[in-house]
Every structure is written in structure tokens, then in C-alpha cells.
Amino acid sequence: MNIEVLIPADASAATPLERFAGGTRAVPPHRPLVLANMVASVDGATAVDGESRGLSGPADREVFHHLRGLVDVVLAGSGTMRADRYRPANPSDAVRGERLARGQHAVPGIAVVTRSLRLDDSAPLVSRAEVATVVITPEDADLRVPAGADHLAVGRGAVDLAAALGLLHERGARLVLCEGGPTLLGNLVAAGLVDELFLTLSPGLAAGDSSRLLSGPELVPMSPLRLRALARSGDMLFVRYDVGDAAGSTPLR
């Protein structure tokens, strides 16, 4: 991978990706450690022509797949799932072996947060998943969950995200990766449920009416961030932050 890690200066990690993304914190007692991974243009757009792919590139995709290879569950909102045409995770044989050696399932599961699911039984995310896709809805949601999916119902009117993460934790999830969209991520941050943010800054200006990185209630005071790592590939920047309460504590290395 053509990536240069600028911070931290320690070069003891075997690869640039491990140096940039290694050393996660201790898992909280009652929920998974939650990482978020997002890509945005320099002016804050999270999509171009309706998709985040327009902001991405080869190095960003390597970070994307590396983070997926570390976690137990990938969490996304149904809008992001539809826009980016989600499919089941399919790691390389090498990543599968590393995961099994750590005591994880060979592939991470996908969990979709939704109040209005549009996913039928034949969708690849359901029909081809090695680990059953989890559909997380409010208890009063009026929708049909595909027969091959696992269903968690928590909260009324909206998904109780803390309770949902607690149930995933009870099922053995220790690391969860949120891939957006902005509404889901905004609500997670507002609830104090995000521990680290991996942000790719795509070198371009998009304007238009694309969503910002977060959407939802205003955070007053702002949720603090603490820089953990910084890398670059050409003109693309990769930033890793501790979020919220984690920003004031010492990270585990």
C-alpha cells in the first residue's frame, strides 16, 4: 500500500496499516468498542452522485477492508446499505486465518439499522451471507424482515442504539465498525457510543446538497476529538481520532 504514516512516529509496526490502525482500546464492560469509518470531501460531502465510492480510491479501500478485517460486526444504516449496494463481507484467505487465530468468526457480520427496510429474501446481503445479517429495528416498526436474517427489535419509534449494542455485546461482539450514514453516526456520537473515528479526507470539493459527516442533534458542547494517527497517500489524508470521553484518556497500544 502506498501510504505514508506521519503520526505516530514509531515505526515498530510491521506494516503502515498496522501502524495507522493498530492498538485499539479496552472493550467497555457492557457494549462493544465502536469504531467509525467515513470518507468525505474537503468541504464535508459524504457522497458524490449519491455514493461514497466517488470520494474513495485504492488506498481508502485498503483502509476500509483492513478495518473490516479487525471487527466482529459492521454496522450501517439502511440508506447507506442501499446507496452503496452492500454485499456480505468476503475477506481474503489470509484475513480469515488471522481472524480465526484471534478467536473471531472467519468473516464479520453485517448489521443494518432501519425503520423501513427494503431487502427481500433473495438479496445477496441475506442469501449469500456466511454470518446471518442482523436487522435492527424499533419494536413498533411495521416491516417484514427477510427469512434468512436475524432480527433485533429495541426501542419504540426509533432504534435504541445503546440497547442494540448491548445485545450485540451479549452475542460476543467486542469490536463494531460503523460505516454510516451520517444520521446513524450522528445519533451514535450524540449518545456517547463512538470511541474512535477513522476519517478519510478526499482531495476535492463537492458542494451540492450531500449530507455532512454527521446528521442529527447539535452537539453542545462539541464532542471532543484527540488525534491518534495521521497518514497520507498522494493528496488523500487519513485521520484517526479518539472521540468524546475517550479523547481525554490514554489509549492502549
Which fold name is given in CATH as the topology?
Dihydrofolate Reductase, subunit A
Strands ordered across the widest β-sheet: 1-9-10-8-2-7-3-4-5-6
Order of helices and strands: EHEHEHHEHEEHEHEEE
List how many beta strands DSSP finds.
Answer: 10
* Unreliable spans: 249-253
By helix and strand content, what is the structural category?
alpha/beta
Kindly report the average pLDDT value: 89
How large, in whole angstroms, is the Cα Rg? 17 Å
Shape: globular
Rounded to the nearest angstrom, the distance between the terminal CA atoms is 22 Å
Which strand-content bin applies to the residues? 15-25%
In short:
With 253 residues, the chain is an alpha/beta fold. The protein has helices at residues 16-21, 58-70, 78-83, 93-101, 124-127, 161-170, 182-190; strands spanning 4-7, 33-41, 73-77, 109-113, 134-137, 150-153, 175-178, 196-202, 225-233, 236-243. It starts with a strand and ends in a 10-residue tail after the last strand.
Characterization of the model:
By secondary structure, this protein is α/β, with parallel strands linked by helices. The chain has one domain: Dihydrofolate Reductase, subunit A (3-Layer(aba) Sandwich). Helix content is about 25%, strand content about 25%. A ten-stranded mixed beta sheet has the order 1-9-10-8-2-7-3-4-5-6, with helices on both faces. The longest helix has 13 residues, at about 60-70. The protein is globular, with a radius of gyration of 17 Å. The two termini are about 20 Å apart. Residues about 250-253 have low confidence and may be disordered.
